[in-house]
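ARCHIVE ENTRY
Sequence with per-residue tokens
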Amino acid sequence: MDEALLTVHNQLIGGIRVLYVSDYCYKCLYQPLVFVKDGHSNASVTVSTIFTLTLNVQHESGNDTLCRFSEMFKEAGHYSLWVKESQTPEDSGSGCILSVEKKPHNAYWPLLTAFLLLGLVSLLWALAPFLSRLIRKIHFCLREPSVGNDDEINPTENGATTQRSSRLKSLDTFRGFSLTVMVFVNYGGGGYWFFQHAPWNGLTVADLVMPWFVFIIGTSVVLAFTSMRRRAVGRLQLLRKVTWRTVVLTLIGFCFLNYGPRDGLLSLSWLRIPGVLQHLGFTYFVLALMQTFSAHAEIPLKEHHWWNPIQDVVLYWPEWVFIIILEMVWLCLTFLLPVPNCPTGYLGAGGIGDGGLYPNCTGGAAGYIDRWILGNHIYHYPTCKTLYHTTVPFDPEGVLGTINSIIMGFMGMQAGKIILVFRLRNLSILTRFLIWAVILGTSAAILCKCTRDEGFIPVNKNLWSLSYVTCMGCFSFLLLGVMFFIVDIKGWWGGQPFIYPGMNSIFVYIGHSLLGAYFPFSWEMRCQDSHWELLFQNLWATFLWVLIAYFLYRKRFFLKI
């Protein structure tokens, strides 16, 4: 899977070596691929089909380049590279010819098939209520009329007899959608690189879900704590609840989700202290403290002030001051902290990147602080390890990353305040969501210069960079706004099936993490040379967790901490 076979034929006098570099790897050094002896020899090697590769063919005796070219190899293809003397007098030196010996197959057919099937299922799901009502009406018309039948067609059609729930269904739907995508990508995403985390800078589908979760935490904190304070729940009781939930989340992440059965026996020498639930727990703790000690339990204000149209910002100016100071701390530590043997303000992956000048500088100040505070107890297999050949550990849930995670959660809190301040004024809510999305999206574009690697602050999930947070904030406001409009305002969609895991997110997350390696969620694959079986396995496992969440929803079982 994601590999092709390359056979290099050397028809020159003297040996040759072939070097390669991935075009996704930023300013990376060439790496040795294969060496071929002299005198009509050949050698075969597997090459990656994930990203475009640049091949550099050199003489054994020197660094002079015989040929250099870029190629996007296709999965399961067999290629031949012929290195021989030029056949024409005009072209002196050597030449390279790349030919296809075995036609590759299309690696995206499984994904396209799955997309079409899921689209068909979604269409049938959406049409089911309309078809059901149509069948009932036809059946009613074929029956003989009787007294009282008019009331049996649709007794709640006018909505007068149904009591609308005050719970924000769009938020549960957003949470469930994020969790469903997270389960799928955590199980492997069918082996496709864009369903896995980016090697360093840039965005993939897997990079979207965690900041969405953090955003939802912020929104939920505002809505839940405002409701509890209206019910006269005291601050001391809120503090006990916040502390208990933070401790439980941290212990679950540290004790149960630190490693899996495939990792073998646990060793205290490399036990990882940070983690996803620890990261979320601490972020929740800070956001909840901010909301607990907020001076305003009732909003909006009834008095008239000139700043009433922006009271969702002005009323919380102390929180804004705290968040600005927190972000200044992140910026100062990231760009001003001296890191031994590394350039100040370095944001690269290290390893063979940036010309191999800073091999042990992975993550710059962020990595240095984590290694200084936590020692060897951080993540040893960062996403940049394979592509950039890094050797030092780096944790994406580290100290500096948690600071910007709080910033991300604060954006979610802002969404919650907008919903409360402008409740019953849906147009105002949607307008402010759009304004925030434009502001944050523009900020992200400026910070990264609309490029992957050349910006002032590149979009980077590993670092939780400022541009990454603002970019994800933009997406979050847009997604929540769309779901709020479709689910809560218009009622066109009830949020199914995402609302089921969204209302049992802790259970689904812990369950899929602990049981993911066991049947029926996983099994030993027989077909490992394509994406078909792995994609089916990952979709099947994700479907099972959505189904489990549905049955728990029907039984009214919701795991809460």
Remarks:
- The mean pLDDT is 86.
